[in-house]
Each structure stands twice: as structure tokens, then as C-alpha cells.
Amino acid sequence: MIRKRRARIVATLGPASRDPATVEALARSSVDVFRLNFSHGTHEDHAEALAAVRAAEKAVGRPLAALADLQGPKLRLGKFADVRIKVAPGHRIRLDQNAAPGDATRVCVPHPELFAAMTPGSILLVDDGKVRLKVEAVDADGVDAVVVQGAELSDRKGVALPGAVIPMAAMTAKDRQDLAFALRIGVDWVALSFVQRPADMAELRQLVQGRAAVMAKIEKPAALERLDEILDLCDGVMIARGDLGVELDPEEVPPAQKTILRAARRRGVPVIVATQMLESMTGSATPTRAEASDVANAVYEGADALMLSAETASGDYPLEAAGMMSRIIERVEKDPRWPELMGAEQDRMDDEDVDALVAAARAAADRASVACLVAFTTTGGTARRLARERALQPVIALTPHHQVARRLCLVWGLEPRVGADPASLEDMTDEATDLALKLGLANPGERVLILAGTPFGAPGAANLLRLAHVRTS
To answer: pTM for the whole thing?
Structure first.
């Protein structure tokens, strides 16, 4: 089960895909990481989905990762007496905290934190920006607003206040319950929604206590303003373009995507590009040409992984969507210009011994006609640093820990595998070359470049670089 591509695929599990047979088919087809979306489904649903992922892992013979995506503090309208009301530009409506069902003149917004951030002139976006309201007046009981754009309001639609930092905790009571459950069943990654400030990620990291890798979902403009500080507290980052695109003008989203990608790659933090990548495939067996280009552009930009949401969770063609994404990625990576772009995007390495060794490994691999690289890693750090260099040869990340191997499934270009720590340099060489041969990444007589740290089995930076030949008999 060696993949022919470096960029990885994340698929969301849901009613259309969480059964064991479909999960295994997705894994055999293309998927590396399975997302459990805690905005939908029950704990029982997610436990069954994770069990299916672990069964698929055994069936395909390679690690698979599970990502728990917490819902976060989604702001929503209350309910209307008639479920839906018609509005038009110029229509005036009051927003308050009265729980009574709304009508054409008023509706509840059960979030006092949102009112604390509104001022006259503030713009509110409802239902992913389909309705735009402008605040005209603010008082102790609510706000008066006028419809600037839109035609209909309905129950429980999302509300956003672009440009404002909402004074509310990043994790709701539901998120804390979901997090405890996700850690109990053994997920590999946890993603926090609507991150606004570094303290949000610091809180998540403190709660997780190393039991899973932590990821920030960037979907608030406020997060872009403190991006470097947030990335310093992350093991991974997701560019959640859906909600980010609600609060930014459409033309601002592509530059924001590039900014996040470059900042994360400088740190060696894996990046997922998410939302609406093959959206039309929820109901069609083929994507639009624009969607294919969107996927391709993320690959050209060097994203570690691309994510399918509704396409696999609730769409009619989950297997076709995953297969299509894989084929687009493979085609881009065959483009003669693609290696040049990977090199052009590479940033300066940190001034540390391990980074000098990793940079030397990539240079040696290119000049010595190396078939593949093997990184022995206890924590995953050496393998992630090597991935940051974007070596074009296959990279085996060999670790004694299943959890580390699963976390590395998200990282660009890595083939994580579980194996015992070597007992000696000779044992290390034999294990690396034999595995490269077994996986079909090197032929007898070809060179394999090995990175490791000594003493073996002790966490620490790599300090050993060795060139070896695969045995011919």
C-alpha cells in the first residue's frame, strides 16, 4: 500500500462512509487520515467510525490516522415562529436575547458575547454571508439592524461578525465533553475550531497533555493577525476556507491561504487545505474543472494534505471523490515544473545541528542517485524536518510507536511504518534496506540514505547520516 503521491488526503466520515466496508475501500483507494466531525453525529457514531478505521488499518497494512474535529463556539440565530421569514434590503429587524420565537421584526441571538463586540456600523453576516445586516443602534437589551443584502432568514443559521475578536472561550462545554471522549477512544489528532488567539491553542494543548497531536483551524481573520504565535503552539494547521471565506471578501481568501501555507512550512507544521475542494461531487460523479484546478493549486503550493468534507461524509459518491482527488494530486506531481516549485517554496532551515543534517541528507540524496530515504524517529521530529525539506525521493519514517506513525500519516511525502529500535549500526542498516526493498521503494544494489539518532531508542535529534546499498542476495 505505497502511495504514488506526496500530498496526503483527509476524508470526513459520515452517514455515507462510516461503515467498515466503505472505510476500508477509502483506505485502499487513497485516504490517509479520517476526520470525525463532532459538529454532527453521536459519540456512538464516532466510536464505530474509529473502530472501522482501526480495522481498515490492519486490512491495508499501513498506519491510518483519525482526526477529531471539535465543533467550537458556533454563533447562531435562535428560532422563528414560522421557521422562515422573508426579508429584503432595507428591512429592519431587532436582535435580542429574548428566547421567544422570532418573527419579521425581531429574533433571538443567544450569545451575549456577540452583543459585547457590536457597535453602530458593525456588519453581521448570516447563513454563510447570504444575508448581510448592518447594526444601526446598540442598547442594553439588543441591537437594531437593517438588511443590506439577502432574501430570507431561518432557524439556527450561523452568524459572523467580521473583523471582531469575540470575547468568548474557544471551547464550549460540548467541546470539552467531546474532547474527553475523543481522547478516551484514542484519536491521533484533535482540531480546534474558530481559533482566535494563541491562548486558545495553549488551552487545548494543556487539556490534551500529549495524548494526541493538536491542530488549529484558521477560519477567523483575528487568527491571521497572530498567525505566527498560534503556529508556535500547533502540531498542525487547517485552512478552513468555508468560515474564513464568510468573514473575508472572496478575493482575500487565496492570499490568506498562501500566507498560512508559507508560515506553516517555515516551521515544518503540516497544513491541511479544506472546504469545498470537490463540492460538486456530493451529487455528481465528476467535479467541475474549477474544482480540479483548486485541488491542483493546493498541491502546487506544497500543502501537506487536502480534505474532503461533505463529499465523503454525506455525498452520493464518496469513493469517486477520494479517487478523483488522488488522481489530480498524482497528475500534478508528474508535472516537470512541480519539483522546481517545491524547491522554490523551500525556506531557510533553522540554525540547529539536526537541520543541517537534514539539509545535507536532501542534498546527498539528490547527488548520489538515492532510491529512497529512511528516517528512524522516536517522536516524529526527524521525519517532519525531512518532510519540510520536500525531498522528492520516497521517505520511510520508521518508529517504534503506533501513535507516532499514525500522526505522521498527515505529513507530506512520508511513508510511516512501525518497527523495533535497531540494536546496532549494522542492525539499523539491514532494517532500513530490507524495508525499502520489501515496500518496493528500492531495488537490489540501489542506494538508501539513512537518518537516525544515537543512542538508539532515546528521544533526541538525529545525529547520524549513512548511505547504504540494498543487498543483491
So the answer is: 0.92
